[in-house]
Protein 1
Amino acid sequence: MGKDHEKLLNNLQQLRKAANLTQQELSEAAEVSRKSINAIENGIYIPSTVLALKIAKTIKCKVEDIFQLP
C-alpha cells in the first residue's frame, strides 16, 4: 500500500445510503464481509481494484465518485 493512503478520501457511506443500501446488502452484492465495507467507509482499509469496481457497479457510480485523492 502506498504511503499516501491516509490521504485517500472516500464517499462510500454517503453514496451507499443514497443508494438505499445497508452495509450488509452492499457487502453481499460485492461478495465481501460487512466488516470490510465498514472498514472501507472508515478509511481503515483500501479495497482492491476489483472490489472497488464491484462496489461502484452495485451503487451505480464510477470508482472516482467513491474514492479521490485531495
Protein 2
Amino acid sequence: MARAQIFGVKNSQATRAAERFFKERRIEIQMVDLKIKPMAPGEIKRFLDRFTLQGLIDREGKSFIDAGLAHMRMTDPDLLRRIEKDPLLLRLPLVRAGNLISIGRDEESWKRMAELP
C-alpha cells in the first residue's frame, strides 16, 4: 500500500487538502509540520533538485509579500535560511510518496502517488 509524507503547516488550506486527499483513499500519511520541525537537508535537496529553489517559493503568498522579498536580492543560501524560519514562503504542501514528489496543491500528482503499490 502507498504511503505519503506531507511537509506543510497545519493552518495551510493546501496542506489540509493533501491530508484529506490521502486519508479519503486510506493511504497512510506521515505529516511533518514545518513550524515544529524543519525539513532535513536531504529532503530539501530532493525537492530543490526537481523544482529548483525559485520553483519552491510561493511568490504570491502572504509571507513572501509581507517580508518584502519581491524587492530584495538574496542569495540561495540566504533564501534557504529564510525558509527555515518561515516555511510559509514555500508552495505548500511538499508531498513525497516513493520516488514521486509534488509541490503545492497538485491533485494529479497525488493521484499518481495513490496508485503506487
Protein 3
Amino acid sequence: MPDLELTEVDITQHPAVAVRYGVTSTPAIVINGRLEFLGVPRGDALLDRLRAVRA
C-alpha cells in the first residue's frame, strides 16, 4: 500500500493521544481516527481493515 501513511506515537510521551482515541493498552492501532485494534492483530485482519478503509 504505497499511499499508506503510518504514524507511531509513544503514549508515555503523549498521553493525550491515548485519551483521545480510547487506548487503554498497547499496542493499539487507530485507523482514520478510530480505534480499530487493541493488541497485535492477525495480519489478515489488519490487511482486511486497511483495504476496507481504502474502498
Protein 4
Amino acid sequence: MAGPVRHHPLKGRFDSAAAQWVRPDGDDGRPGELEIGFAENGLVAMRRVDDPDGTALIYTPEEWTAFVEGVKDGELDFAILMEDARRASLPSE
C-alpha cells in the first residue's frame, strides 16, 4: 500500500491525505471512475476511485493545464486517435 505522501523525483511531494479531491461526473452524469487531487504546493494528481492507494499520476500545474486543454481539444478522443493512426499508416501519394 502506498502511503499518503508520494514523492516524485522531479516534481516533489504530493500529500494525498491533505489534498482536495474531486470526483468529476462521467459523460452519463454518474460519478466518474477517477479522482483528481489538488495539493497546496500546486501539484495535481489523478487516481482511480476504487484504488486510492494504487498508482497516481502526478502533474505540475503547467502539465495539468496542458492535459486539460488537450482533453478539451479532443486530443484524447479515441475515435480521433484511431483515425490519425489510420491516416498515418496510409501510403504517401
